Amino acid sequence: xxxxxxxxxxxxxxxxxxxxxxxxxxxxxxxxxxxxxxxxxxxxxxxxxxxxxxxxxxxxxxxxxxxxxxxxxxxxxxxxxxxxxxxxxxxxxxxxxxxxxxxxxxxxxxxxxxxxxxxxxxxxxxxxxxxxxxxxxxxxxxxxxxxxxxxxxxxxxxxxxxxxxxxxxxxxxxxxxxxxxxxxxxxxxxxxxxxxxxxxxxxxxxxxxxxxxxxxxxxxxxxxx
Length: 225
Known about the structure:
42% of the residues lie in helices and 10% in strands. The protein is of the alpha/beta class. It starts with 10 loop residues before the first helix and ends in a 12-residue tail after the last helix. The mean pLDDT is 93.
């Protein structure tokens, strides 16, 4: 389990983290599309959500994208994508409707490697539903705008709150570290050309700085501009 020794999470920490969580969360109206694009993670609830969308006939193909990273290399015996795809198979999604990209280690690679896979299969995809954890949805939106500008996309996630985000492999302390790191990337990555720029309110920047000063710095990126 990704449980780290940590200080007590104060009420102020939780309030700051909740502000960031809500800022990072995007959820669109979902029409029928050509593909459910699953950017995988440590949270298998996203895989089950992809299954639900498929069974609602919002798309007749699912692409699972994700290798292993800092969080998941200690959780899954196989890649994130293979782990998620197995859940889809167990829920009677036909194998021929499932595509697996199992090499990517970050959001940019999720998009680039998945585009290449679709090209290799000679699939024409004009619209997608892109899904991830709630706290990753803004990052997905900004990355898609930059790296897949010709696709019609709709963003979604399983419906749970910050308090409900922890699961058997990751506790609330690590979830807060994760969302601080996600916001750090939203601040930094437009300057690196990875995603489009986002206007970030002062209240969110203040919450972000407060959490970093309180020790929530385990997921900050080392990339420089």
